[in-house]
Amino acid sequence: MTFKERVFSGVQPTGNLHLGNYLGAIARFAALQDNYDCIYCVVDLHAITVWQDPAELARATREVTAAFIACGIDPKKHIIFNQSQVAEHAELAWVFNCVARMGWLNRMTQFKEKAGKDRENASVGLFAYPNLMAADILVYRGTHVPVGEDQKQHLELSRDIAQKFNNDFSASIKAHGFGETFFPLPEPLIAGPATRVMSLRDGSKKMSKSEPSDYSRINLTDDADAIAQKIRKAKTDPEPLPSEEKGLEPRPEADNLVGIYAALAAVPKAQVLAEFGGAQFSTFKSALVDLAVVKLGPLGAEMKRLVHDPVYIDSVLADGASRAQTIAADTMKAVKDIVGFIRR
Ligand code: TRP
In the list 23, 79, 94, 290, which could disulfide-bond 39, CB 3.0-4.6 Å? Predict the structure, then answer.
């Protein structure tokens, strides 16, 4: 069976959005909209797998929505919504809780990292997190999923769940006229290393909302002054920039700044080095500040404008949720028939 190509991805509404979220996810989401039908979800159900302050969760949900819109994702042609408005995600996740095996989830490295040493005290939701993620994608029978490298293992689990469901229920799937397989096996669209943004204070760590120093990241709502200060203070080494990419290998901080420049300018790193090879960091940083302010300034301003209009944001989410639900309800109807649940 061939499935209609459909992109699905999600962003958690936790903390402020930063340059890493933009280059690694949201900008890529926007780029896919000409070639695919896209569904982009603010995954608030995933967020509460660890404690969230309720007011902060609502604020962050609107902020992610604003970022989607400000980055140019068209909420009329595509779908933008928050997960908790479409109950079918949680409903399908339950079925998947009964398809996925404990052994599979025990292998998830993200759970081990997030639960840390105190595994006994982690929420059950944190353990089952990947099953909900599979449900997010498969409730729309999504075929392509733009994610970062860190989500690759979760996506493989989604494929395993889809395959096991297709196998376990193959007779019923056929008997109900759905053909040979019901769920597609979703494929990752993994971002290349060029979109992996590292901390401005430590080139070996990912840029992250949980790093204590705000100087480690550029938030999407930072103003021009903050962007300039953070880039000027970014860690570097005393050597001038190399002229070849090979020269960046032992210099993670230099590599990161060149990578950010390349991604914002949408050119290869080699081209950046062709221009700035031999230059001092002070020169390069000034150019990077100018570029970052030009590219991120309008985006941050538009996000701020949108966040001040929660009525509009909430209307986008409600409209998106209702269109998403039409698709999701259709899938759940079929899943209920396949599993043997009596429905109204
Ligand atoms: N787990 C993803 C992350 O933390 C977010 C996410 C939830 C997601 N559901 C998804 C991503 C479905 C892709 C598809 O980045």
Answer: 79
Q: Do residues 241 and 291 lie in contact, with contact meaning Cβ atoms separated by under 8 Å?
A: no
Burial grade of 295 (CB within 10 A; 0-12, 13-18, 19 or more): middle
Model confidence over 46-69: pLDDT tens digits?
999 999 999 999 999 999 999 999
Instruction: Give Cα separations from 80 to 100, 128, 198, 200, 309 (angstroms).
Output: 28, 24, 28, 31, 16
Estimate the crossing angle of helix 310-339 against helix 281-307, to 10 degrees. 80
33 C-alpha to ligand 1 centroid (Å): 18
The domain limits of the chain are 6-195+310-339, 214-305
Options 1.10.357.20, 3.40.605.10, 1.10.240.10, 3.30.310.40; CATH of 214-305: 1.10.240.10
Is 80 exceeded by the pLDDT of residue 195?
Answer: no
CATH topology of domain 6-195+310-339: Rossmann fold (3.40.50)
Rounded to 5°, angle at Cα 99 from 10 and 117:
65
Q: Is 29 in the pocket of ligand 1 (CB under 6 A)?
A: no
Lookup: tokens for 37: 């039908």
Contact between 23 and 263 under an 8 Å Cβ cutoff? The reply is yes
pLDDT tens readout for residues 82-97: 999 999 999 999 999 9
> What are the angstrom distances between the C-alpha of 280 and each of 229, 240, 277, 286, 341?
18, 5, 9, 10, 68
Counting every residue written for the chain, the total comes to 344
37 lines ligand 1 (CB under 6 A): no
* Whole-number Å distance between alpha carbons of 187 and 36: 14
